Amino acid sequence: MKPENTTSTSEFAPEFTLLLTPTPRGARLARLLAAHQLRAWGMAGPAAEAAELVVAELANNAARHGRVPGRDFELRMDREDGHVRVELSDARAERHPHPVGEPDEGGYGLLLVAALATAWGVKDRSVGKTVWATVPLTGGDRTGPVPYQR
C-alpha cells in the first residue's frame, strides 16, 4: 500500500497540504489529519467542527467521484484572517459537484458544505479540479446557505 504524504503539522505554518489515496481510508485520514492540524492552530469548538465536516464531505466526494486509478487527491488548508480555506483537488475535471435541490437517497453533503461555509465553489486545474470552501473561525459569520460559485 502506498504511504500517505503530509507536510509537518505546525501551529506556526499557515498552510497545510496532504496527498492521499482516493479511497474511503484516504477520506477518513483527511478528516483526522485536518482535525489534528486545526487543533495545532488552536482552533476548537464549533468552528473546528465545521471545518472538519467540510473536509470530511469534500474528501469523501474526491475519493468517491474524483477517483482516477493511480492518482491521489490533495487536501490543502490555509489559515487566514477570520477563516480557514479548505481545498480538495482531484483528477476528474469532468465531474463537477452540483448541489441538488431535493436530495432523495444522498446528495446532502454539498448542502452541508453550503450551510457551514461562507462561500464554496469549483475551479479547474490543468489536470482535474479543485473544490474549495471558506469556513469562518467564528460561528456568527453565517447568514444562510451560499450558492455554488465557479
Quick recap of the structure?
The protein is of the alpha+beta class and 150 residues long.
Description:
The chain has 150 residues and is an alpha+beta fold. The protein is 31% helix and 27% strand. It contains 3 helices and 7 strands. The chain has a 7-stranded mixed β-sheet, with helices on one face. α1 (24-40) packs antiparallel against α2 (45-65) and α2 packs antiparallel against α3. The longest helix is centred in the middle third of the chain and has 21 residues, at 45-65. The N and C termini lie far apart (35 Å). Residues 1-9 and 140-148 have low confidence and may be disordered.
Q: How many helices does DSSP assign?
A: 3
**Total strands:** 7
Largest sheet: 7 strands, mixed
- Poorly predicted tracts of residues: 1-9, 140-148
Distance between the termini: 35 Å
Residue fraction in strands: 25-35%
Rg, Å, rounded: 14 Å
Summing up helix and strand content along with how strands pair, one would put the structural category as alpha+beta
Helical content stands at 25-40%
Task: Name the overall outline.
Answer: globular
> What order do the helices and strands follow?
EEHHEEHEEE
Mean pLDDT: 82
**Strand neighbour order, sheet with most strands:** 1-2-3-4-6-5-7
